[in-house]
Amino acid sequence: MDPECSQLLPALCAVLADPRQPVADDTCLEKLLDWFKTITKAGSSLLLLQENPCLVELLCHVLKPQDLSSRVLSFSLRLAGVFAAQEDCFQYLQQGELLPRLFGEPGPLGGAAWTAPSVRSGWIQGLRSLAQHPSALHFLADCGAVDTIFSLQGDSSLFVASAAGQLLVHILGLSMQGLAEGHPSLQAGDWPVCAQKIVGHIEESLHSTAVPQITQALNVLTTTFGHCHDPWTQVLWVRLSPLVGSLLEKDPVPAAHSLVDLLLSVARSPGLSSSSCGLWETLAQTLNHLSPTQAGPLALGILKLQDCPQVLRAQAFVILLQPLACVLKATGQDPGPSDVLDSATGDSLTVDALLSSKAACVGLLCRTLAHLELLQPLPQRPCPWPQEPLLGAAVTLLQLCRGSASPASDVGRHLCALLLGCVRVQRAALDFLGTLSQETGPQELVTEVFAVLLEYLRSPDSSPTVLKKAFQATFRWLLSSPKTPGCCDLEPHALLVLRELLPVLQKRLCSPCWEVRDSGLEFLTQMTRHWGGQAGFRHALLASEVPKLTEQLLRDPESYVRASAVTVMGQLSSQGLHVTPVSPEHPGGQQKSLLVELLHILSTDSEGFPRRAVMQVFTQWLRDHHADVAGDTEQFMARVLQVASQDLDWEVRAQGLELALVFLEQTLGQFHSHCPYAVTPPVAAPAGPLAQALQPLCRVRLFEFAFRALFDCDRPVAQKSCDLLLFLRAKTASSSGSLQESRSGPDVASVEAALQRWQAGDQGQPLGDLEPEVVLAVLRSVDLEGLRGALAEGSDHMEKSPQSLLQDMLATVGVLGENEADCY
Amino acid sequence: MPEIRVTPLGAGQDVGRSCILVSIAGKNVMLDCGMHMGFNDDRRFPDFSYITRNGRLTDFLDCVIISHFHLDHCGALPYFSEMVGYDGPIYMTHPTQAICPILLEDYRKIAVDKKGEANFFTSQMIKDCMKKVVAVHLHQTVQVDDELEIKAYYAGHVLGAAMFQIKVGSESVVYTGDYNMTPDRHLGAAWIDKCRPNLLITESTYATTIRDSKRCRERDFLKKVHEAVERGGKVLIPVFALGRAQELCILLETFWERMNLKAPIYFSTGLTEKANHYYKLFITWTNQKIRKTFVQRNMFEFKHIKAFDRAFADNPGPMVIMPGYCVQGTVGHKILSGQRKLEMEGRQVLEVKMQVEYMSFSAHADAKGIMQLVGQAEPESVLLVHGEAKKMEFLKQKIEQEFRVNCYMPANGETVTLPTSPSIPVGISLGLLKREMAQGLLPDAKKPRLLHGTLIMKDSNFRLVSSEQALKELGLAEHQLRFTCRVHLHDPRKEQETAMRVYSHLKSVLKDHCVQHLPDGSVTVESILIQAAAHSEDPGTKVLLVSWTYQDEELGSYLTSLLKKGLPQASS
């Protein structure tokens, strides 16, 4: 501990112990505790207590009957636990009988303070920290803490109840650690006392008829088996599995969710799943006993297991597919040749669950779709995968939700009535449909997929979130359309779809909802990125109004849309899909070039997003040697850097440095490193003399931009500039031998003076034209490494220091009454 | 048993990180999704893992409602929707939807730029999150689904702040968010109708404070600013750019105009400018005065206040006024707590030479305002959030005493469960209604009336019909239920004579009823049948067998008690 902090600590402890002094806010106490945790992790707690007796005094003081704030009491309990985690410190605190007084009956446990959840939470967390060694176990047994923990499992506070369960798991694990290696005996009498007590409690709870108690026991077991795979856990499972199994005999199965979690946790544990206590039979039995809604997560969990009997997997898959099979059957569709779906259709329980109410129907379908969506990309997913019926089911669901399906059966009509206009199912089905695009299907079905997607994209009833998902699913399906080998162009069918799609997109780009316009633009960006170079796509796009509309959206009232339009336009232009009719002969009548338009946005747009997007487009253009840029790169760079340096948004300035780096790379030659910020010795020196190579950089005033950015008030900008200059310095170091440095010249001095002024926060005058020699000299004289080190610290690192925290807590004393807790 | 459950994950006996889970009639709603200014790690956001142990958040939660754009109410939203994975609907008002991304971007800037945090939500995530928002109008009833509906009410506090009523069937909860019951210079006062919710969840920041007159505070503020400026000094007001900045700008602007002052007033460029833009855009959300004068002069177009340019920055001068709370770990907090020496980078120590004033301009309802709102909404119970435990305790007692309702103040993580008695609509048959009408009683909505009929529950519907119709509809035969009773009479005469005596007695006593002596010797009074029989063991005693239907239960009971007293001697 710093001597400064050591000095402040007694005063702070005195303040904390004084009930008349309210503590500013509990974040201070949390931070204080964080600090003690760091100190005790790094060194001896005993030494800390011996050197700072005020800490023990504080712990003693809080025990005195007084009107102490529950926050301070809770803090003290947690603090004591942190100290007592080290065994020697534990013994030290035990000598003064401090721990039993804090955590035993005489302490807050028996007092009025116990009604505050923060005190109960502090008590649990204190014990959780303390329980690290055998002495702690004895202590827990002696002071009867375990019984209290049992009762806290049912606490009214979720936080306390959950922490109590976690603590039991921890104590059980700790007490079993002492047991000899190998399989411990099944005889309860051979187990350590604490463990016996906990296991006994679990058994008792599993016998109970109260669902909360069963849930608590199951949760403790789930966490235990999830975290610990020691041999004793196998013995424990062998002992408890009959009891767990007996829960299945009850109707309805109590605490079904927790039971599912436990069984899956056991199945995932390598030692337990292989043990011969009928786990697979229990899982199969559970699948049969649970309601369709409860069985879904279990089925998914089983299918995700690496090793599991095939029969069980098949059973789980049938359960998972049942709701969709019912939908197919109800709408008079043949579930197809797949045995799995065929066997899934007959379940009346699922039909009942689906039709019981709208909420139940929507819930079951959404969960099923989400489960299948998770399963689809996994390598262990069932094989064969019923792609066709699943596609059919997703399409049917989407049709049911739109009312465009007309099922003949009663069940189908009922389903249709339940699902009509249901946005939740629409969203889930569109997500699922998108996932299914990773595999294809028969052409007729794919045609149906596109038809339903177009139906959604066209529909005036589709909500913005549904439209966004419909766009995403459409893109994924276009991407997955079968391609000619070696060609990434859109296949003819997809092109047909595209032709139908573009008028829809056109309409959506004019939507009054900005969310829809933006999703449309994002969709267009994705398409152009993939097929911008392909003749079919280009032709269809250019024949549509979409590029023109996109250009109009550069002036959209919503900044998010303007930013997306900038990105699309940049891309269209890169791909030659946006051609400005430039006619030098008629300067008055010509349209503004996109470059000019984007520069205008960069200089004038009031929002950051479009300006950031412009910078990204410019960087990409420079990389791609875009015609508009390549014409006069230096003028382009000079103009953009000048505008970017004035920008109030730090991300625009940071983007400016990104742009500068690309220019630097192109001017000085290619670098072999892909990470431009990694300072590696350069392999390729510029072709010509260095001064000549640096000239263009000087002409575009890149150095002034970078030097100014070095002292930017926004940290990432300064960091980026620092990295860029360090990189340049390393790059030029090996080849600067031939260059005459004018280190002592007046120009260097004036630049250095300007840098100092900038560092002091002064804006100052522009530097004017710099010579390469001056730049190199300045590069060497600035302590870039030191600056980089300083920038690595957060801007609030001074205020975050422990010393600052202690000062703040002390300073608040007395002021608090005046400036009472306020907010925004 | 139907119930409403409320669990605060944040703002339970605490200010900051507002996040309250409400379960009402099987629907789950999250109210606000805020961050805590005091933490820079995981603790800054509510612990969403407690929402549901099993299953996906999107399946569990029916919707998220954001009351206003302050970060302690919406700062965790992009994290929740884009990183934790909630993909359902988010509701907020139009101004909140417009201003929220600005605040979230600003928060991201502080976290990523100033504090260098990695793994924070990105700008794209903020945009994606905002695209999930469904914007609502004031007093518009929005159907989240077939059963759940929400409605926004004006809350004052900041532009676009709203209180929300959440309703499922006849059960409802009102969440106030932050609100202000007194109008200020640019916003109106919060208002809600007498919606009588089952539960009112109200903020309680100023649970024990009765705020001094606003005018005094404003006068004091202007006086201090004026004095400092007159002395040739400068005043720095580091105010939260959205909300209070506009309030203070209007205050200063008006004062400057009135006093004809020439000293320049600047506000920092960027955020405040953007905020002013939105204030102009959503002028309908401001108070009446501003709306009225808007055509002649937009109050947010200031004459004396100009955008601040970095070039003006030199020594800020002798006074700083803090118009709001500063969290620990900031320079503002240090200055406010009176620290006169500040350690800066590189062990450099700066002496604080300026005068520091704390003048709260935060727009929350005070204790009086909170009581006023409770009175306005007339809830069945009240739950306090967004305040300090000790102060809440005081207010809780006051509410319980004054309104005779239960008041709760759960800590974070604690669940409050309120049993409710849902009212279930029942359809009534035309026949039954006509019968009632025939009795000459017209239905009156204000007067509950007792109506006899048979309740039929079919296809999740409830209908009240006449018993005859019920029998017909259900294809059932009528059973007649009769109560029976035996009365022993000391009478040695024959049964027929005893019956005759009974007849004469009843005829004389029950003058308004139809008493008959039937040929078989039995006596009837309305549906009541009396037969006399000999006692098997005692010939001097006769047994009267009395039976009656439930319709004549009162009369039956009366008759039996009459007969038990015996027959009059005179007739013997």
UniProtKB/TrEMBL annotation, chain A:
Its main location: cytoplasm. It comes from the Eukaryota. GO terms for molecular function: ribonuclease inhibitor activity. Keywords: Cytoplasm. GO terms for cellular component: cytosol; nucleoplasm. One of its GO terms (biological process) is positive regulation of cell growth. SUPFAM superfamilies: ARM repeat. It is found in: Cytoplasm. Gene3D superfamilies: Leucine-rich Repeat Variant (1.25.10.10). Belongs to the BRAT1 family. This is BRCA1-associated ATM activator 1 isoform X4. It comes from Vulpes vulpes (Red fox).
From TrEMBL, chain B:
Residues 16-210 form the Metallo-beta-lactamase domain. Component of the Integrator complex, composed of core subunits INTS1, INTS2, INTS3, INTS4, INTS5, INTS6, INTS7, INTS8, INTS9/RC74, INTS10, INTS11/CPSF3L, INTS12, INTS13, INTS14 and INTS15. The core complex associates with protein phosphatase 2A subunits PPP2CA and PPP2R1A, to form the Integrator-PP2A (INTAC) complex. INTS11 is part of the RNA endonuclease subcomplex, composed of INTS4, INTS9, INTS11 and inositol hexakisphosphate (InsP6). Interacts with WDR73; interaction is required for the assembly of the RNA endonuclease subcomplex in the cytoplasm. Its cofactor is Zn(2+). Keywords: Cytoplasm, Hydrolase, Metal-binding, Nucleus, Zinc. GO terms for molecular function: hydrolase activity; metal ion binding; RNA endonuclease activity. It is found in: Cytoplasm; Nucleus. This is Integrator complex subunit 11. Belongs to the metallo-beta-lactamase superfamily. RNA-metabolizing metallo-beta-lactamase-like family. INTS11 subfamily. GO terms for cellular component: cytoplasm; integrator complex. Its main location: cytoplasm. One of its GO terms (biological process) is snRNA processing. The keyword Metal-binding applies. CDD domains: INTS11-like_MBL-fold. Pfam families: Beta-Casp, IntS11_C, Lactamase_B_6, RMMBL. Residues 245-335 form the Beta-Casp domain.
